[in-house]
From TrEMBL:
<keyword id="KW-1133">Transmembrane helix</keyword>
<dbReference type="GO" id="GO:0015628">
    <property type="term" value="P:protein secretion by the type II secretion system"/>
</dbReference>
<feature type="domain" description="GspL periplasmic">
    <location>
        <begin position="291"/>
        <end position="433"/>
    </location>
</feature>
<dbReference type="Pfam" id="PF12693">
    <property type="entry name" value="GspL_C"/>
</dbReference>
<dbReference type="GO" id="GO:0005886">
    <property type="term" value="C:plasma membrane"/>
</dbReference>
<dbReference type="InterPro" id="IPR043129">
    <property type="entry name" value="ATPase_NBD"/>
</dbReference>
<dbReference type="GO" id="GO:0015627">
    <property type="term" value="C:type II protein secretion system complex"/>
</dbReference>
<dbReference type="InterPro" id="IPR007812">
    <property type="entry name" value="T2SS_protein-GspL"/>
</dbReference>
<protein>
    <submittedName>
        <fullName>General secretion pathway protein L</fullName>
    </submittedName>
</protein>
<keyword id="KW-0813">Transport</keyword>
<keyword id="KW-0812">Transmembrane</keyword>
<feature type="transmembrane region" description="Helical">
    <location>
        <begin position="294"/>
        <end position="316"/>
    </location>
</feature>
<keyword id="KW-0653">Protein transport</keyword>
<keyword id="KW-0472">Membrane</keyword>
<keyword id="KW-0997">Cell inner membrane</keyword>
<dbReference type="GO" id="GO:0009276">
    <property type="term" value="C:Gram-negative-bacterium-type cell wall"/>
</dbReference>
<comment type="similarity">
    <text>Belongs to the GSP L family.</text>
</comment>
Length: 445
């Protein structure tokens, strides 16, 4: 994802693009343009939007001189709650009614909070302008509140001041301590006076002070001409992740340190953001809702297909069960042709089989029927009636021919004695119906 930082400074406009990948930032490109007439800003935004990467998050950094600040002591540490409380806390103490202001909070040391606010209409104008040019900012912040990531590793535990000629920030042990926009035409002298006032008023001694931005780059260059305005403060050291983001290009790193600090805050934490409440960024939410809508449609489609598959399986299983039930009913009617109505065909068949398999009957009946079934052969189509009374067996069936009946009679000799065939009736197709009688042999009883 590309992070596009649009940093509006007092006299220039900076575009810086960073690529965020796996939590690491890398510098892609940047451009710096002087700001003269008011109409130059819309033109520059339009020209940059035409070449900006399609996949991007746009962050606007406004000048610090458009902000108002005041230190407060509040028994809270949650920035969201502090932000909601500030309009009530500062009611009647601001030049403009608090309803026309947008508030943010920066926790400081010793339980103090820096209340920061900007005029709503000024922010709305900038947001509207950038949105009209296709660069709607997701976050509106100020660079100086994110400079703690620029503190060199070797002085992290010291009291460090950082300036870009337009703002001053003081940190102790890497934590914010003091912020101030520079308002006079001599920023370096104002920085010196401010640090002296801090030492007298708060007993705060700054161990090191560094500069960054275009003026620090000139100060670091041995080729700077005599008439160039340079900073008397040493340029910001470039090392660690700061140097890695710019692939070791020290001059570019110092020049774009403010934009890098904003990108780093976006990538790793919760930056100061004046787009809240009625000015909250909603385009991202709309994109998220659109993505969620697509996901929801896919999920619903999946559920529909799942139920369709379950319904199809249920239909096929029901069809198989109905076919099985019909087969059972057919067998039942063949087994019990005289019964008019069955209550439960399966239960009745199971009961009859158990009855045949139990008691004295099972020792005679089932073996006899088994032998007769084995003797039937293919030429005897079926035996549709079998009656056994004592040791007398009476069978009725259909056969292919009279010879088939005689063959069946011969094959029953192992099971029956005194076998007789009677009442043979011929049909036009040559088949016959027959009646066979016999007595169960003693060996089969």
């Amino acid at each position: 994802m590309n992070l596009v930082i649009v940093e509006i400074k007092r006299n220039e406009l900076v575009f810086a693009t960073f690529r965020k990948k796996r939590g690491e930032l890398s510098f892609v490109e940047a451009a710096r343009h002087p700001l003269g007439q008011e109409e130059s800003l819309p033109q520059l935004l339009e020209e940059f939007a035409a070449s900006a990467p399609a996949e991007r998050r746009v962050i606007l950094a406004i000048p610090s001189n458009q902000l108002f600040m005041r230190e407060l002591e509040l028994p809270l540490s949650d920035r969201r709650k502090i932000r909601e409380l500030l309009p009530l806390e500062l009611k009647g103490e601001t030049a403009v009614d608090t309803d026309q202001l947008m508030f943010e909070a920066v926790p400081l040391e010793e339980g103090k909070v820096l209340a920061v606010w900007a005029k709503r209409h000024a922010l709305e104008d900038k947001i509207r302008l950038m949105t009209g040019k296709g660069l709607e900012p997701e976050i509106v912040t100020a660079s100086l509140f994110n400079w703690q990531c620029l503190i060199p590793t070797e002085v992290e535990s010291a009291t460090v001041a950082i300036t870009d000629g337009e703002s001053l920030a003081v940190f102790r042990n890497g934590k914010p301590l003091y912020f101030r926009p520079m308002t006079s035409g001599e920023p370096d002298a104002e920085v010196t006076k401010t640090l002296a006032a801090l030492e007298i008023g708060k007993g705060l001694t700054v161990d090191r002070i560094f500069s960054h931005g275009g003026r620090s780059q000139q100060a670091a260059s041995s080729n700077a001409s005599a008439d160039q305005e340079t900073s008397p403060f040493p340029p910001l050291p470039v090392n660690g992740e700061f140097a890695e983001a710019f692939a070791g290009d020290t001059n570019s790193a110092r020049d774009l340190a403010g934009a890098y600090a904003v990108a780093r805050a976006i990538a790793t934490g919760d930056p100061v953001n004046f787009r809240s409440g009625e000015l909250a960024y909603t385009a991202g939410q709309a994109k998220t809702r659109k993505k969620l809508r697509l996901s929801m449609i896919l999920a619903v489609s999946f559920v529909i297909l799942l139920f369709a598959e379950v319904g199809l399986r249920y239909y096929l299983v029901k069809k198989d069960v109905d076919s099985l039930n019909n087969s059972i009913k057919t067998i039942y009617r063949e087994v019990f042709p005289t019964r008019k109505k069955a209550v439960d065909e399966v239960a009745e068949l199971r009961s009859e089989i158990k009855r045949l398999s139990s008691g004295k009957t099972s020792s005679n009946l089932l073996p006899i029927l088994t032998k007769l079934a084995e003797a039937k052969g293919d030429d005897v189509f079926e035996v549709f009636e079998a009656e056994i009374s004592g040791n007398q067996v009476h069978l009725k069936g259909d056969a292919r021919s009279i010879q088939a009946v005689n063959d069946f009679k011969t094959r029953t000799a192992d099971a029956l004695s005194n076998v007789e065939v009677g009442e043979i009736k011929s049909r036009p197709d040559g088949s016959v119906s027959f009646v066979l009688r016999g007595a169960v042999k003693e060996a089969n009883k």
